[in-house]
Amino acid sequence: MNFYQISVCVFAGALIMFMLAYSYKIHFWKYGRRKQKVLPSAEQNKNYAIFVPARDESKVIRGILDSIKKQTYKQENLTTYIIVEDNDDPTIEICKEYKNTTCYVLPKKPGSKAGALKIITKDLYDQGKRYDGYFIIDADNILFDDFVENMHNALCAGNDLVLGGRISTYPSGNAISAGSTLTWTFLNTLNNKCRSENGKNIIVQGSPLLISKTLIEDFWHGEWPEMSLTEDLDITYICNLNNFKTFYYEYALVYDVQPNNRKAGFNQRMRWVKGHHQTNKKYYKQFLKTKCKYNDGIYKFDSLFSLFPAIAILVTFILFILYSFIAAIVLACLSNPIWIWALVGGIVGTALFYLTICFWTLFAMISDNEKLHMTVGQKIQAFFTVPFFYFDYLPIYVKTLFAKDVKWTKIDHTNSKK
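Now predict its structure.
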């Protein structure tokens, strides 16, 4: 056995070890295809505020406003606040056409969604306006008719925060669009569903959210705390550290628009990754040392370390591929016949790396098949192209390590109707 073959065995051993370290995730994945338990209907006696951050979203705002108007939940118990930054935003005039709807103009530009929410929650609290819960929904979303009713049922089931599900408005095999859509499959269908079904806290990611008055009024007293670029991860830590109960409910659905070009997707993920750096730095050690009522055992381990085995697997693949090709070049220059082994190893490693992510994409599509609404052609396209979406995380991760200022960049939406 030559030295290169020995190197292959070392890399293969490391790969197997990291895969075994990741095998605990099977417990989470097996819930992916299961139907979640339907929660009992609760009396529609709670008053809710619906916050819709809508910076320059006049092109799509009618979609969410019309869907709110169609809700099966009592309309008189819903008050909508469309949050804008400028007094000349066309959204202001549009909101006048809808009942129980206020267009709230921020007194200053906050620079983030969390900043906008901080301003409005404080203002409403100071005005003495009180609600039983607060929805946070993106402006490009369209709510299913029973969305509020289902979120209400989940809140009344004893939860302090509820996360709803997403369905892509425009299903696509485009690498950016499909990759972004499948991100929510990995986070919710293949992770949060298991957590909720076992009475454990979820990892709050994105929206739509419903937060109880217990958290916003009684705990924060209207003072939405300073948060990172990813306010959802901040909320995850805050709820765990203070034993608030969080829940993912797959029946509370919205139609959601995903970015469909590389620049928009890259900027969005830059914000996500930078926000994760900031939030983990802020809370990680405290969460590691604290016993959490709704996040213990394998679930706490997953919250703390789930990315490590996955990253280790990817890094092992990349190092092996680079090592093989560099070795092939050096050995060929030295006229060492082993170079052909190294070249073949590099090619095979690259193919295995690519196919591993292809089949990981296929697994996600199978797990969330009913919600994806993708054609066979779109699924085939996504199978082969989505790996390049994930390859992009490598330069994104490196760039965020050195980027001091990652801003809340706007993603243009042209139409939110399905």
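The chain has two domains: 3-25+304-402, 36-299.
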